[in-house]
């Protein structure tokens, strides 16, 4: 559905300094009918990427193909027609205060010259689809934050696009409303078969709704793949952010070992790690951990306190053997303190 081939965007620096490379040779293919998350810190290139996807920015080089059309090669009427296949949802819906929810949803259809009867039919469908029945005649000041975002989603779907781009769609919402909006996005994908791209810095959003994820860093792809594979890869840069390790209790008289697991055939649970420690003459206690089930696979990061049977510190030899076994099985393990 979306293919980026060698996408590069370079901005000239003001005052004649070194140019700014916002995107540096991005190669990415997104399958139709899936939810794809694009994450990265500020300055990673996320906003430039979404502007290139919508044709608001022309790439310095490379292709931006959406549903078989190279957006970067289009101008004028052809570009405007191609954009109808791309719906947009923003962090702030920026609704027109003078218009009701229904008329805000109808606004892009009016601009496109859709006849009134067809507009009203489409708006009625969308009001029901996004769960706003009974609120369609309310103005923005009479709507909650979640309802306003539902209007924004309906407006983005008005022209029946094949791709829905969501730029930080939940950043301005509380936790409960965020979950409702994410469930709505997931439901829309299932019901409409639409491809969804979510630009976000919130890992909870990625865990909740995305099928695949891409990490941008300094304008390049640092990691990309199926969410479950990315989360289960303890060597990858996204694993620790998708599954964060809470602070461990202080003052523990033991060797503390951090373990990242999930892709090993042997170590699939924290209990497996504890049993392996016992086989090397250590008593292991779980002192901190985060365990998630993603795509039916359990992945996690845990902190173990290792002692011998008498409660004394585990021997250096036993610790080395235990860590070597974990390493051989693909579990990332690091000794923290003694």
**Share in helix:** 25-40%
Along the chain, the helix and strand elements come as EEEHEEHEHHHEHEHEEHHEHEEHE
Give the distance, in angstroms, between the N- and C-terminal Cα atoms. Answer: 52 Å
CATH topology of the largest domain: Rossmann fold
The largest pleated sheet is described as: 6 strands, mixed
The strand count comes to: 14
Q: Tell me what portion of residues adopts beta-strand conformation.
A: 25-35%
Give the low-pLDDT segments.
none
Give the tally of structural domains: 2
How do the strands of the widest beta sheet line up side by side?
6-7-8-3-9-10
Q: Which architecture of the largest domain would the CATH scheme give at its second level? A: 3-Layer(aba) Sandwich
Q: How many H/I helices? A: 11
Keywords: Amino-acid transport, ATP-binding, Cell membrane, Membrane, Nucleotide-binding, Translocase, Transport
Domain ABC transporter: 2-243
Family: Belongs to the ABC transporter superfamily.
Protein name: D-methionine transport system ATP-binding protein
Folded structure, characterized:
With 338 residues, the protein is α/β, with parallel strands linked by helices. It has two domains: 238 residues, P-loop containing nucleotide triphosphate hydrolases (Rossmann fold, 3-Layer(aba) Sandwich), CATH 3.40.50.300; 93 residues, 2-Layer Sandwich (Alpha-Beta Plaits). Helix content is 33%, strand content 29%. The strands form three sheets. The chain has a six-stranded mixed β-sheet, sandwiched between helices. The chain is elongated, with a radius of gyration of 25 Å. The model has no long low-confidence stretch (mean pLDDT 89).
């Amino acid at each position: 559905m979306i293919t980026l081939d060698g996408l590069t965007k370079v901005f000239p620096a003001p005052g004649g300094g070194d140019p700014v490379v916002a995107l540096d040779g991005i190669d990415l293919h997104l399958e139709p009918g899936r939810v794809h998350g694009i994450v990265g810190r500020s300055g990673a290139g996320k906003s430039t990427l979404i502007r290139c996807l919508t044709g608001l920015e022309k790439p310095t080089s490379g292709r931006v193909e959406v549903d078989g059309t190279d957006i970067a090669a289009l101008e004028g009427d052809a570009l405007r027609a191609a954009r109808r296949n791309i719906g947009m949802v923003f962090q702030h819906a920026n609704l027109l205060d003078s218009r009701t929810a229904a008329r805000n949803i109808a606004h892009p259809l009016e601009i496109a010259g859709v006849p009134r009867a067809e507009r009203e039919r489409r708006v009625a469908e969308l009001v029901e689809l996004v769960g706003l029945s009974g609120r369609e005649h309310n103005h923005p000041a009479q709507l909650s934050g979640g309802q306003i975002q539902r209007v924004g989603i309906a407006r983005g779907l008005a022209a029946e696009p094949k791709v829905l781009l969501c730029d930080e769609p939940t950043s301005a919402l509380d936790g409960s409303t965020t979950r409702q909006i994410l469930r709505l996005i997931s439901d829309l994908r299932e019901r409409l078969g639409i491809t969804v791209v979510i630009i976000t810095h919130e890992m909870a959003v990625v865990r909740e709704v995305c099928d695949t994820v891409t990490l941008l860093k300094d304008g390049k792809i640092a990691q990309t793949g199926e969410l479950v594979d990315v989360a289960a890869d303890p060597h990858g840069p996204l694993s620790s952010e998708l599954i964060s390790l809470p602070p461990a209790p202080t003052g523990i008289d033991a060797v503390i070992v951090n373990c990242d697991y999930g892709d090993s055939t042997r170590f699939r649970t924290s209990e497996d790690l504890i049993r392996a420690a016992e086989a090397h003459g250590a008593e292991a206690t779980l002192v901190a951990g985060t365990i998630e089930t993603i795509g039916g696979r359990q992945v996690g990061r845990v902190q173990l306190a290792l002692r011998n049977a008498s409660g004394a510190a585990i021997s250096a030899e036993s610790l080395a053997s235990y860590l070597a076994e974990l390493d051989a099985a693909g579990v990332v393990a690091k000794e923290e303190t003694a």
